[in-house]
Amino acid sequence: MTLLPIFEPGRWAPKTNESPFEYWASLSPAAPFFGVAWRFAADPKEAESLNAGMAEMSRAITEQMSKSVKVAAEMTESLATVAQTRMKTAAQAADAAEVVTAKSMQKSVEAAADIGGAVSDMTFKSVRAAADVSDTVNISTRRQVKQATEASEAMGERAQKSAEAAADYADEVVKMAKPSNLFAKAPDMFDDLKMIRGVGPKLERELNQMGIYSFDQISKFTEANLAWVDANLTAFKGRPFRDNWIEQAMSLMKH
Questions:
Q1: Cα–Cα–Cα angle for 158, 164, 165, rounded to 5 degrees
Q2: For residue 193, which of 213, 210, 211, 217 has the smallest C-alpha distance?
Q3: How far apart are CA 195 and CA 104, in angstroms?
Q4: Could you report the per-residue pLDDT of 238-249, keeping only the tens digit for each?
């Protein structure tokens, strides 16, 4: 087959009454498959021969495909038969297994029921025994709690009496520790007690009411005397010791 040059302008021009599909199909050597003449064939006769060859090839391919489809259908049918047979066999096996399983489960349930009855009986006996033991323990515990309560109450009463006796003794000791150098009334000469750290106007008035007016008095106090002063304060309890009034008074007397 002799081909014309593909660059020949006349070969590329669409033909009269030629549809777009026919035009584009005619550009391919496979155009005869679509019932269209290849526009680059050497002459019409050769193109016709080419078309006939393509048609024959198409029929051969179609026939071969038909045979392949038939073989595939036969194989599919055979496989379906085998699958159906296997499914039937599996169903029969499942039925047999279900029967065996049901019987086995029934025996297991009966055995479990027997065991459950035995366990329940043992549990009831254990609970009853535990209840008896608990009653015995509760009686003993109640006795012990009662004895401990009575002993605690007795100890509490003794402790309270001891505390009261100690408080009375402390009061007596404090009373006996009253300083002997207190003034009965305000002297002509007195110190500014507010110079002692921690002593303000209110605390100074309370000290004056006790008969304390000078640093000399406070510097001569004993620890017991200072305790008496602290006990008679209406406020600022403990300050005479925390602020070291005796030492402060001695230091102020030197200035």
A1: 90
A2: 213
A3: 105
A4: 999 999 999 999
Mean pLDDT of the chain: 75
In Å, how far are 241, 245, 251 from 216, measured between CA atoms?
A: 17, 11, 10
pLDDT surpassing 70 at residue 184: yes
CA distances from 98 to 94, 102, 103, 110 (A): 6, 6, 9, 18
Q: Which of 219, 235, 237, 215 is nearest to 227 (CA)?
A: 237
* Rounded CA separation 233/48 (Å): 141
Residue with the two structure tokens 């100890």: 155
Structure-derived torsion over alpha carbons of residues 53, 55, 56, 62, reported in degrees to the nearest 10: 150
Per residue in 81-108, pLDDT (tens digit) is 766 777 776 667 556 555 545 565 566 5
State which H helix or E strand residue 50 sits in: helix 44-176
Structure tokens at 98: 């279900």
> Quick check: 246 and 218 in contact, CB under 8 A?
yes
Beta strands in 139-238 (DSSP E): none
Which of 9-23, 110-124, 219-233 has maximum average pLDDT? 219-233
